UniProtKB/TrEMBL annotation:
It comes from Haliovirga abyssi. Fe cation 2 binds at residues 37, 65, 150, 175. CDD domains: MPP_DR1281 (cd07382). Fe cation 1 binds at residues 8, 37-38, 177. This is Metallophosphoesterase. Belongs to the YmdB-like family. Keywords: Hydrolase, Iron, Metal-binding. GO terms for molecular function: 2',3'-cyclic-nucleotide 3'-phosphodiesterase activity; metal ion binding. SUPFAM superfamilies: Metallo-dependent phosphatases. The active site is at residue 66. It comes from the Bacteria. The keyword Zinc does not apply.
Length: 261
């Protein structure tokens, strides 16, 4: 089984790069996952954009702390199984679901779990304790298990990777928008990378126009961030698995400019 996982989509530039990549490479993959929590103007996601991503060939959209920025997505999270949010926001009066099991193009089952970190982020339920409650169920029903860990600290991400080694097929990090170079296969067969980066404008600050961010650091006044449109790049990972054992066989980084796609 071969899957594509795409780093945080930042607004219209990110969607443009994703569309161009999918037009050329969609047929190469059995399943495509994107983190879409920043796809609507850099903050949140809308129903219109989820449909746009599905039309490109995306099979599943994962989220994070910005999932909630556009309230119109709340009923979509409840109705649509192809979009999930971090599991550790809880199950009471919280829209949507934190994991899902879907069919892949090659007839296998893939289970995807979305978690959010707690270090330097809002204090949620422990992602370690929450994933422990569902991992066995997801493993029993899936050929491959994938975890999107939306977290700030590399130490927390790496700890979760080792915690799930041999149980998850892949643990990848999102949220920081900066791709790390630590892609590897852990001792028991779990593919791991601390962050898969972002897809959007790179001549800014993590996807926003640099002037706005610099100004915020200079004066700390309320600032409306704007999506960066300069130097658009596509970030993600290309991952293969043994679907009989669930073990990761390879995990390769993708970091290419729009003109290179």
């Amino acid at each position: 089984m071969r899957i594509l996982v795409v780093g945080d989509i930042i607004g219209k530039p990110g969607r443009l790069a994703l569309k161009k990549y999918m037009e050329k490479h969609e047929e190469e993959y059995d399943f495509v996952i994107v983190n879409g929590e920043n796809s609507a103007g850099g903050f949140g996601i809308t129903k219109k954009i989820t449909d746009e991503l599905y039309d490109m060939g995306v099979d599943l959209i994962t989220g994070g702390n910005h999932t909630w920025d556009k309230k119109e997505i709340y009923p979509v999270l409840d109705k649509e199984i192809r979009i999930i949010r971090p599991l550790n926001y809880g199950i009471d009066n919280v829209p949507g679901r934190g994991y899902i099991i879907l069919n892949t193009k090659n007839g296998k089952k893939i289970g995807v779990i979305n978690l959010q970190g707690r270090v330097f982020m809002p204090e949620l339920d422990s992602p370690f304790k929450i994933v422990e409650q569902v991992i066995e169920e997801v493993m029993s029903k899936s050929d491959v298990v994938v975890v999107d860990f939306h977290a700030e600290a590399t130490s927390e991400k790496m700890a979760l990777g080792w915690f799930l080694d041999g149980r998850a097929s892949l643990v990848f990090g999102t949220h920081t928008h900066v791709m790390t170079a630590d892609n590897r296969i852990l001792h028991k067969g779990t593919g791991y990378i601390s962050d898969i980066g972002m897809t959007g404008g790179f001549d800014g600050v993590i996807g926003s126009k640099k002037e706005k961010i610099i100004g915020k650091f200079m004066n700390y006044l309320p600032t409306r961030f704007e999506v960066c449109n300069d130097n658009i790049r596509f970030n993600g990972i290309d991952v293969t698995f043994n679907s009989k054992t669930g073990k990761c066989l390879s995990i390769d980084r993708i970091d290419i400019g729009l003109e290179e796609i």
